[in-house]
Amino acid sequence: MNKSALLIFQFILAGILCSHGAEIKVPKDCKSIGQALDQAKEGDWVVVSPGTYFERIKIPDGVTLRSAGNDEKGKVGLKRAELVILDGKGEVSEDAGIELGEGSVVDGITVTGMGKYDYDSWNKHFQTKGRDQSYDRIGGYNAPAIGADGVNAVILNCIVHHNGNTGIAVASRKAPAVVKVKGNTCFRNMGGGIGYMAGSRGEVVGNHCYENFYAGIGMEGGHPLILSNHCHNNIRAGIGISEGACPVVRKNHCHNNRRAGIGVRTGYETRPMIIDNDCHDNAMTGIGVSDEAYAIIRGNRCYQNALTGIGLQTGASALIIGNECYENKAAGIGHREVVETFLMDNHIHHNGASGLGFDETSADSVSKCVGNRIHDNALVGVGIRKGWNVQLVGNEISRSGGMPPLIMVFEGSRAELTDNQLTGGGVASIRCAGTVLAEGNVIKPDPGSKGGRGPSSAMWALPGAEVVAHGNEFLGWRKALLASGAKVIASQNRGYALNANPFQIDKSVSGSRIANNQIGDSSEK
């Protein structure tokens, strides 16, 4: 939220808290909520007693609509909210169930039946993870259960369920909107649970959004603060960010969603900050970025997701700092057709495939990975496929047991390995079919390996590879470097090996040379 919008928002809240005009009671003073709102003036409160009210209403400017009672907890939300029900009877309308005016507040109302809830459609798309969903209602205002368009308003403690469109929708179509949405429960709506669109701003704090037809909380061009919400079992993402949205997303809990925990997509102008969230057990990725979007992803925990902890694809870019990605079924952090990433200080461990995965790309993709800890992933620690240029600087990469190498550099890719600590590896610590510059690394086998039964080579260059190894420390391998049909330059490396001939290269390859290395054999240790 920018500074001017924040000042406006704080001014509105101060006015709400400091002003309390007449109190109009429903049904004591007026039989219907609509009648009470027609009589209300700015600063008045309309207080509704328990009951079911078959209405669609608009709250006038500066008026507060509230259910009667205290803030005792009920089964779904506040008990008073559960007892005051606004029911649209499933009828289709162009009007919202509740439309807020400038400076108005709605607090503790259940809103249901605003449009048709389609169980069969919901169930079908839940089973298919939303792959065939229509997008015609994403990003539109579409007669929500509760709506605020072009106004500054507050939506508190409402229970919004089984509606035909979005549960709570905020937009800036008519004018700039700054809206606070706090403490609401939104579930089984045929749109998203909560949606911010068309440049709208505000705060989305402490809401519970689950089993909605699209995202639990969705933004198309909206820029709110998304803080401490609980989003789960939604057909698409727990939190969905697209079409130029630039929110700050902090301290949310997103799990068991049918696609991503937090999903970012659609255009380079989509640029969220995603900080300190928990994303786990989602049916795709914990945090996903795609379709040319850019994200700052910092301090999140992404674990036990069906694919990657953090996944980037189709032209995405990201700054990824200080996250923990573990026990995901594929990569801890995965890249596919990505433009550029910078990864620093992440802890990536015990994933089902690679720690860092760089899939084959048709673009000239670039990643710099600094100071990450990459441990005990089932296959490779880092896998780099065709089209990538990856710099690995100052990382700790290790695995106990297993046959795959710690780092695999495939044909058509380039890796620069500088000052890394590599411990373990199966057939080799570094296996290369592409181009590798390795400088200043410390490369040790698995501490559990013994004597001649230990791993084969610290570095293994396959036919067609090009390897420059300079100033590395090789400790306890059978061979420091094994190469066949590859161009190898090895100089000023040191350490010790289990074989009296630590370098085995194909001397027939033009340009290969071994010079000024100090590799002793194990008998010296």
Task: Please describe the structure with a list of short key phrases separated by commas or semicolons.
about 525 residues, 20-stranded parallel β-sheet, Pectate Lyase C-like, 2 domains, 19-stranded parallel β-sheet, 57 strands, 4 helices, elongated, mainly beta
Care to describe what's here?
It is built from 4 helices and 57 strands. The protein has 525 residues and is mainly β. It has 2 domains: 1-259, no CATH class; 353-525, Pectate Lyase C-like, CATH 2.160.20. The strands form 3 sheets. It has a 20-stranded parallel β-sheet, with helices on both faces. It has a 19-stranded parallel β-sheet. The protein starts with a helix and ends with a strand.
Please give the structural blueprint.
Blueprint: H1 3-18, E1 23-26, H2 33-39, E2 45-48, E3 51-53, E4 57-59, E5 64-67, H3 79-83, E6 84-87, E7 98-100, E8 105-107, E9 110-112, H4 119-127, E10 146-149, E11 152-156, E12 159-161, E13 168-171, E14 178-182, E15 185-187, E16 194-197, E17 201-205, E18 208-210, E19 217-220, E20 225-227, E21 230-232, E22 239-242, E23 248-250, E24 253-255, E25 262-264, E26 273-275, E27 278-280, E28 287-289, E29 294-298, E30 301-303, E31 310-313, E32 317-321, E33 324-326, E34 333-336, E35 340-344, E36 347-349, E37 356-358, E38 365-370, E39 373-375, E40 382-384, E41 388-393, E42 396-398, E43 407-409, E44 414-418, E45 421-423, E46 428-432, E47 435-439, E48 442-444, E49 457-461, E50 466-470, E51 473-477, E52 479-483, E53 487-491, E54 494-497, E55 503-504, E56 513-515, E57 518-521
Parallel strand pairs: 1-2, 2-5, 3-6, 4-7, 5-8, 6-9, 7-10, 8-11, 9-12, 10-13, 11-14, 12-15, 13-16, 14-17, 15-18, 16-19, 17-20, 18-21, 19-22, 20-23, 21-24, 22-25, 23-26, 24-27, 25-28, 26-29, 27-30, 28-31, 29-32, 30-33, 31-34, 32-35, 33-36, 34-37, 35-38, 36-39, 37-40, 38-41, 39-42, 40-43, ...
